[in-house]
């Protein structure tokens, strides 16, 4: 069962970044413009952001095993549409369908909590969280070789085969959910949440092209504030909320989500901008003139160390506590981003910075998932992890907008970005990392133990306390 869940997680994570390095090839293959081809990434981001928490809530209500299969089928269907797309419009639609597969992550964490023996839950969650990060890095590493060997459409055919295999296996291997949250789904709340996420993330993704002062960007950001306020009121009054606001106020939950937001700013920006940095010809005063494949290999240390750190961090968080782990991870994040900003003249410097970032993100994301799982009731696991994943995505959108704005401001018309654009951009990401390190100090310092994670037949301590009190 765990092998099937990990295959599902890796398939989804791979699709997050697999097409990013080859957008110019897709632009040529689809005979479209640069502004249109970026919607291949934007559509996936927006769809995943909207559907991840919704699918998490559906899994908590109707069964995580069922919704996992739905998410995998959506990934496979979207991959098929994108693989055979004759034009840019159909491929964008396929990528939007793939975004529904964002439900794989909260379902994976929920299934592990329900089915894995309690003492092994932290390690299994750590491996799953690490594989999530590894998939994003592996997509960038594998994109070039796959395109060179099999063509650009192989970036959709291969994930199609993986997700279809995972869906069939999940049908036979993953048992029905033992814990379910009663009550109907508040679809008005779901629509409001989709509305404010769309209104927030769309201008963040397109502001470099639109301009921050454009009426579209300002109007959407204002709409995001209004819709988010309305959503909060509806959720607070609903007897069956999509996202329980009491759960979100738990200290371990909101502080972990704050760290996730700030760390996400750095992770997705590095994935998005470092390949372009190392591919820049040295004649520009920086860069190594790397190919797409070589640029991916420079990210390989980050991918490897993410996985290693994710595997071992579950043991360390039990010994040291979540606060200490977050403090160490965020500090490594700042050191690595400072290296990228000020020490990037040699390939080995980039390799070292990538390895440090891998340790930082792998240990942090593994710790986040374990803290969230231990802090909420079993029937809230899906939606709680869906929100945490979404918070990281919002952080990534903020980071990409920040980095993109700085690099664009230091790009002459018709030319390459200047070195200062990247220096100031990575330094700004490092500043966000410093804030993340400070936020880590807010995380409750109690050391979790393996026995603290509620298992299949246990009720969380908070519930037992209320029973005794009554």
Automatic annotation (TrEMBL):
Residues annotated as coiled-coil are: none
Membrane topology reported for the UniProt record:
Multi-pass membrane protein
Membrane-spanning residues: 39-55, 67-86, 92-112, 124-143, 155-174, 186-205, 217-234, 254-278, 298-318, 325-342, 348-377, 389-410, 422-443
What CDD domains does the database record attribute to this sequence?
A: MFS_MMR_MDR_like
Principal location listed in the UniProt entry:
membrane
Subcellular location per UniProt equals: Cell membrane
Gene3D superfamilies for this protein: MFS general substrate transporter like domains
GO MF, one example: transmembrane transporter activity
Recite the UniProt keywords alphabetically: Membrane, Transmembrane, Transmembrane helix, Transport
Question: The Major facilitator superfamily (MFS) profile domain covers which part of the protein?
Answer: 1-448
- Protein name as it appears in the record: MFS transporter
Species this protein is from:
Planotetraspora kaengkrachanensis
